[in-house]
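Sample entry (133 residues):
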Amino acid sequence: MAAEPRDGGFEKEKEEEEAAAERAELLRDRFRLSVISIANAEEGRDGISEPVVACIADLAFKYTEQLAKDVELFAQHAGRKSVNMEDVILSAHRNDHLAGLLRSFSQELKGKEPQTERKRKKSSKSDDKALAS
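Predicted structure, serialized as tokens:
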């Protein structure tokens, strides 16, 4: 029986990386177009050229990509598969003002969440006997 080539996994990994790069490029282009359209819609933009706006959009996108990687790593480090608000707040640890704003926003969101009733603890048979006495 002939052994299968071991580079099949490598090719699949390479294809996934290429697909991720294509998605990132598409997102970058959409982000750039959104920033340019917002800048064009703003009044008083007379002194900013479109290439400068595009450059700022690219920098903002790269920053956002790095931020996303950081919060994913924070979640992984905490043993979680998904990112939560604490990860986002932690990502702002070098900017006290931003961290404070994020904490306030988080508290505001928590205040708007519908209050759910806490589930009752299932009573044990010994608790039931004590109540019956």
